[in-house]
Amino acid sequence: MKKLVISICLFSVLSIWNESIGQTKIDPAEISSKVQELTDFHDIIYPMWHTAYPAKDYNALKGFVPKIKSSIESINNVKLPGILREKETAWKSQLNELNISAQNYYAAASGSNNSDLLSAAEKLHSSYEKMVMVLRPALKEVDDFHQTLYIIYHKLLPDSKYDEIAALTGTLITKAEAIVNYPQDKLETKLGDNLGAYNVSAEKLYKSVTSLVEALKSNDPEKKKEAIESMHNTYEGLDSLLK
Asked: What is the mean pLDDT of residues 207-228?
């Protein structure tokens, strides 16, 4: 029964989302920051790191090799969803490190030096965590805003679908307000000296959304495009403070 309720809720959300962007159909996976192959790898890394490693169960550590190889192969073949296109370079760089760590793990597992095996397990775990950090948004609220911005900038703007963009401005304002109103104490912990710059950039992002709302009321396509470009650039400035 619980699964049925969740399924109905999810269907309702997706239906509302699809309706809100008119004729433009968006694959939900394209605006998700989740990479399932990396999530699946966690099912291997977790018992390796939290059970076998602290127990120094060398046979168990060696036994993970086939699963690690299979999972690494899947991760190597990943095509990042569209919303993560800006992270492609960082992903590839960290993926290279993950592969090196995996190769070192295989070599250590085939040898007899237990110390090397433990060290290799530690490095593999560290490489996995760095992969996760490449994808993980610093703030959920900023990621939420980016999901809507992605649709506007990469799907609707190229075809000048300004009516559909206008239909999303209410969502943009709500999400921009959530960014502006993020608790200051939590931000200070995350950002430290960058807190002031974040607040200025967050306010600027909100104003860029309200400016877009006004621009969309005009009959000047160039003015509309400029407002969207300005909002996109402002978002990128905010996002850069969180890296």
From this structure: 96
Provide the residue ranges of all domains of the chain, joining segments of one domain with +: 36-135, 140-240
> Does the structure show a pLDDT above 50 at 233?
yes
Contact 225, 173 (CB under 8 A): no
**Tokens 């790898």 belong to residue:** 41
Distance CA(243)–CA(173), nearest Å, equals 23
Residue that is written with structure tokens 């950002």 in the block:
191
- Residue of 97, 91, 67 whose CA lies nearest to 78: 91
84 within 8 A of 32, measured Cβ to Cβ: no
- The reported pTM is 0.68
Topology alike, domains 36-135 and 140-240: yes
Higher pLDDT, 44 or 27: 44
What is the second-level CATH architecture of the domain 140-240?
A: Up-down Bundle (1.20)
CATH architecture for residues 36-135: Up-down Bundle (1.20)
Residues 156-183: tens digit of each pLDDT:
999 999 999 999 999 999 999 999 999 9
Q: What own/partner pairs with CB < 8 Å and gap ≥ 24 does 165-172 have? A: 165/216, 165/224, 165/228, 166/213, 166/216, 167/20, 167/21, 167/22, 168/20, 168/21, 169/209, 169/212, 169/213, 169/216, 171/20, 172/145, 172/148, 172/209, 172/212
